[in-house]
Amino acid sequence: MELLDRYQAVRSLTESLASVLTAEDQVAQSMPDTSPAKWHRAHTTWFFETFLLKACAPDYLELDPAFAFLFNSYYVAAGPRHTRAERGMITRPGIAEVGEYRRHVDQAMAEMLTQPVTAEVAELVELGCNHEQQHQELLLMDIKHLFSLNPIAPAYAPGVVATKECESTPMGWLRFDGGIVSVGHKGSEFCFDNELPQHDVLLQTFELADRLITCGEWIDFIEAGGYENPTHWLSDGWHTAQKNSWEAPEYWRQVDGQWMIFTLAGLRDINPAEPVSHLSYYEADAYAAWAGARLPTEFEWEHGAATADLPHANDTPSFVHPQPAAAGSDESGLRQMFGELWQWTSSSYSPYPGFRAAPGAVGEYNGKFMVNTWVLRGGCVATSPGHVRASYRNFFYPSTRWHFSGLRLARNI
Fold first, then answer.
1. Rounded distance between C-alpha atoms, residue 274 and residue 272, angstroms
2. Cis ω before 93 (30° cut-off from 0)
3. CA 55 to CA 75: how far, in whole Å?
4. What is the pLDDT of residues 338-367, one digit of tens each?
5. Would you kindly state where each structural domain of the chain is located, as residue ranges?
6. Are strands 206-209 and 199-203 parallel, antiparallel or unpaired?
7. Which helix (H) or strand (E) is 207 found in, with range?
């Protein structure tokens, strides 16, 4: 029953996150990179149906065979799928039918999980739960982007208190000696396949900044002509910034000459002490070059993270926080490493030595994306606490910035 309790808790949280959204909110798709909230609810259901019920429950009957086409994402081996950029065109089935689909699959899963299951089934259930937790984060990212395009700037969580105004603390540096270090997931707890296998890497001596870059420091970059001078930008980054007319991070707006930011709690003044968020890799790299530093490699970040405290995995998720918190002056060591913002690294997303994808369609989970993307580490305010660990490898294209992403500086010794 422990596995069933885990399954039901994850599924319930998804419904809770979607419960404040209207039918109209759940259908719209703001850009090709995002998906409607209704689609997230249905796709995570399709995952359990496809990889567990259809495969392991001979008596299972689909609620609607068309859902396999509508709600497959990128699993080519699982069959044909609807075009990603047109998910917002799927007005039917509606949210009531998607709710019925979730209940239908949940009932069948409950029947399966009340009986003893094989280790293979248990592993697939755990993967499905972690997959749905990833989509909970995506649902919030996508809703924030959608709401940001609305002229009235609606709030997803209007009752949430914004980050308190406080003074920013001076940035310090922590030294890490070079040498051979072990990276990758350690232990028997769940991890994604891209965190394995554990292996050794050689690091040179380096330093990490003890906190994230703040909004106030980013304003200094803007006022110094950061978005107007190509000197510090990668060529493709400069082209992307110019093509998209970037003048500030995603969700920043100038109102009467003052910078404001759109958050899950609505539009508000920027707190200069809070970490700057919603940056592309190109912006993070340009800032680092302007500041006379660089971005850390993912292995430097992971090695440094071993000295920082992990949050408790069973803490209440901070899914609806409007912004990550400013670093406290009473903290020591590396601050804001976990659960504040995803932190860009300078590492391309590649397989570890000896990486092997699982057989079949489920093996398409991570491996097929190991090209042209960059690694981010650390988790964010919308990340499930159970995913916030030193070895977790998130990845995005370098031009994207609707996710909760910031930066920490590194430098050579």
1. 6
2. yes
3. 15
4. 999 999 999 999 999 999 988 888 888 888
5. 2-148, 173-412
6. unpaired
7. strand 206-209
Token pair, residue 170, equals 């001076």
Q: Residue 199 in 3-state DSSP?
A: strand
Name the residue among 287, 53, 18, 229 with its Cα closest to residue 143.
18
Fold held by 2-148? Four Helix Bundle (Hemerythrin (Met), subunit A) (1.20.120)
**Phi and psi, residue 189, nearest 5°:** -70, 165
How far apart (Å, rounded) are the C-alpha atoms in residues 146 and 35? Answer: 10
Given a contact cutoff of 8 angstroms between Cβ atoms, the answer to whether 168 and 198 are in contact is no
The pLDDT of residue 325 is 74
CB contact at 8 A, 147 and 266: no
Nearest-Å Rg of the Cα atoms of the chain is 22
The low-confidence residues of the chain, meaning pLDDT below 70, are 1, 159-167, 311-323, 328-332
pLDDT at 104: 98
Neighbour order of strands in the sheet with 266-269: 252-255, 258-263, 266-269
- What is the structure's pLDDT at 164? 53
CATH classification for the domain delimited by 173-412, as one of 3.40.50.2300, 3.90.1580.10, 3.20.20.70, 3.40.50.720: 3.90.1580.10
pLDDT value for 338: 96
Quickly tell me which residue has 């920043």 as its tokens: 252
